[in-house]
Structures are given as C-alpha cells and as structure tokens.
Design goal:
The protein is α/β, with parallel strands linked by helices. Helix content is 32%, strand content 18%. α2 runs antiparallel to α4.
C-alpha cells in the first residue's frame, strides 16, 4: 500500500484513529502492537513492540495477549475501518469459558477480529517454534467458540465490520459512498 495501513484515511480519519475512538468506548485497556512505536505516541494506549519479531500477525497477536491486563483480549487488525461495537459486544457475551471466540462469516473464520484468552499464549508460542505462522494453526490446542454470522448478522447487515484494506482496490471500494457499496 506504500504506507502504514493504520494511517490510511477513510472519510478524512485514519483507520487507527477510528479503531481507537471505538475502543475507548468499549475497553479500559488498549494496546497497540507495532514496531514503529514513534508513529503511535499520540494515542492513549499501551504501545508495545513485538515480543517475538518477524512472526507477522501471529506475533502481534501473541504480544497483545501477553500485555493485556485482563484474562481475555479482543484483537483486531489495524486495517479494519468499520468495526462495529455491537458485534464486538456480542462476541464478548459469547466468551463463557472459551479460550477463543471467533466469528465465522461467509468468507470463513475472522481470526483478526476475535477474542483470545491468556491460555492461548503457550499454544501460540509452540506453533511459532514449529515455524507455523497462521493464526488458525493453534486453534486445535485451545477451546474455541465459533460464532456463526447468522447470529450477529442483524447487528451488521452490510458486513462492514470485516472489511479490511489490504490493496489499493480494496481502499477504492471502501472509500465509495455507502449507497454505492450496498448496491
């Protein structure tokens, strides 16, 4: 994308600012995992470098869970501009005694929009030691609650919570007026 995706602007607001603003209404503990610490100094959050560098999203997930002040942490990618507080609250209600609460949409599991317990730390470390770097690779080692899209669809009918910006084409699509996206 040519720059840090967290700072791509949607409607004039950087994605990371959109996420941070929402998280301040939902959580008392916000952690940003980055190896570009200086870019995030203005955020009211704990800024942490990857504990185990070079592991991609899995390393970031591990670091966020490790530094969480709570037994569970909602973890999300920095390129999701339309997170929905109602969907997040619904997932929180589904925690019970699970280690992972992950939504499944028609596109599949959404592991970078999910809740993880501290019990995930050892399994994540184990799979990284075996050179496995997909978030889903440690799921068989923990208790997972898969929340089907049909359960939360009414909270986000346009499925915007799960949109992310990985390519210039995806950026172009999310910048379209809402009525054009739904048409």
């Amino acid at each position: 994308m040519g720059k840090n995706k967290a700072f791509i602007e949607i409607d004039g607001v950087p994605i990371i600012q959109r996420i941070h603003t929402l998280f301040k209404t939902l959580f008392s503990d916000i952690i940003i995992v980055t190896n570009e610490v200086q870019l995030f100094q203005n955020f009211e959050a704990k800024i942490q470098r990857d504990l185990i560098p070079g592991q991609g999203a899995l390393g970031g997930l591990y670091t966020g869970i490790y530094y969480s002040s709570f037994p569970h942490a909602f973890c999300v990618a920095c390129d999701m501009p339309f997170l929905n507080g109602s969907v997040i609250r619904y997932l929180i209600e589904k925690m019970e005694d699970f280690d992972v609460v992950v939504p499944r949409t028609e596109d599949g599991l959404e592991p970078l929009h999910a809740i993880y317990s501290k019990n995930c730390l050892d399994p994540i470390r184990k799979i990284m030691e075996h050179k496995q770097f997909k978030v889903l690779d440690f799921y068989p080692m923990v208790k997972v609650n898969i929340v089907e899209e049909s359960e939360f669809r009414s909270l986000d009918p346009a499925r915007e919570s799960f949109l992310n910006v990985n390519t210039p084409e995806q950026l172009r699509l999310v910048k379209k007026p809402k009525h054009a996206m739904q048409g």
